[in-house]
C-alpha cells in the first residue's frame, strides 16, 4: 500500500512539472493552426489590387559632355578707347554693318548709353501706338505676357539667368505696351517726338568723340571670345580620336584685349564628344538623334551623327551636326547634354500586373463591368518597375487609357465574375 501511494505521488509531481510545458505546446499548436488557416483563407479570398492605365513617355538616352564647333572668325579691334557694343549677341550682320563704337572719353560713352535707352523706349512706344484700337493686338500681347511669365519661371528653375534676363525684358516691354493701350495716339506720338529730339541733341554733343566699328563680312555676331576659335577646325573633326580631342581641349589659347568679338559665318555647326563604347553602340553614321542641353531646359536640338572614331580605352569620338542657326548656341562651347535616341509613348503598366496566357502571350487582366478580361499587350519599352505598351484607341481588344488593370489577385481568369 505504501508503495502504491508513493507511485501516485511521483505521478502527481510529474504532471505538475510537465503542466506548463503542455500549456505552452498547446498554445503554439493553436497559433500554428490559426496561421495556416488565415493564410489559406487569404489565398482564397485575396482582394484585387488595381491601377489605372495612364499615358506616359520615356526616353532611351545617355549623357555626354562635348564641345560646339562652328565656322568662326574673331574680330580684332586696334582702336583705343571705351568700347560699347551696338548690337546684341546672335544678331545677323551684313558686311560692313556696325557692331560697336569706341569713345574717346567716358562722357561720350555715357551719352550714347542714354541715347540707346531712349531708343528702346521709342521702340516700345511705337509698338503701343500700333496696338491702339486693335483687339487682336491686345489679345496677342496678353498671350505674349503669359508666355514670357512661364518662360521666365522655367529658366529660373534651371538657373539659366542669361536667357531669363532676355525674357524678363520682353515681359517688361509687353506689360508697358499693354498698360498704354488706353492712352490716346496723340499723347503717345508726343512722347515719341520728345524722345527723338533728346536723342538728336545728345548725338550732337557726342560729336567726333565716337568711332564706329564695322564687321568685315556677314555673319551672326557674338561678343564672347573663349580662346577655342582657332583650336577647333571643322576639317579635322572626322579624324579625331578620344586622345586627340583631349589634347585640343588642353590647347585653349589666351584671349587678348583686342579680340572683342567674333562672327559665326555658317548657319549650322557641330558638337563633338568622347562617348563610352557601350553608349556608342546605339549610334551609327547618318542616324538622327535629339540633343537636350542642360543650359536650354526642355528645348531639343535635332542632330545627325556625322562620324564615329575608332576605339581608344573604352571610348570613341562622335561628331554630331546641326544645320540651322540657333541663337542660344552662339556663346556655348563646352556643354553637358543628354543624347535622346528614341522616345517611347504609350500606356504605363506595372511589371507585377503582367501575366502570360496559355499561348505564351503577355497581357494584363482588366476589370470590365463585373468581369475580368485578359488583354494582350505589345511592349514598346521596359524598365525595372514598369512597361510602356502600345495602345489602339479604336479597338476595345487593346489596352486603353483609363482601363482598370489588376495588379494583385489570385486565380484570375478571362471572363471570371468578380465577387
Tell me the major beta sheet. Answer: 6 strands, antiparallel, barrel
Beta-strand fraction estimate? 25-35%
**Low confidence ranges:** 37-44
Give the rounded overall mean pLDDT: 83
SSE arrangement, N to C = HEEEEEEHHHHEEHEEHEEEEEEEEEE
Shape summary:
elongated
Structural commentary:
The strands form five sheets. The protein has a six-stranded antiparallel β-barrel with strand order 2-10-13-12-11-14. A four-stranded antiparallel β-sheet has the order 3-9-8-5, with no helix packed on it. It has a three-stranded antiparallel β-sheet with strand order 4-6-7, with helices on one face. The protein has four domains: about 1-45; about 50-55 and about 345-410, Beta Barrel (conserved putative lor/sdh protein from methanococcus maripaludis s2 fold); about 60-70 and about 220-345, Efflux pump adaptor protein, beta barrel domain (Elongation Factor Tu (Ef-tu), domain 3, Beta Barrel); about 75-215, no CATH class. The chain is elongated. Helix 2 runs antiparallel to helix 5 (about 185-205). It has seven helices and 20 strands. With about 425 residues, it is α+β, with helices and mostly antiparallel strands. It has helices at about 1-45, 105-130, 135-155, 160-180, 185-205, 240-250, 275-280; strands spanning about 50, 55-70, 70-75, 80-85, 90-95, 100-105, 210-215, 220, 260-265, 270-275, 290-295, 300-310, 315-320, 335-350, 355, 360-370, 370-375, 380, 385-390, 405-410.
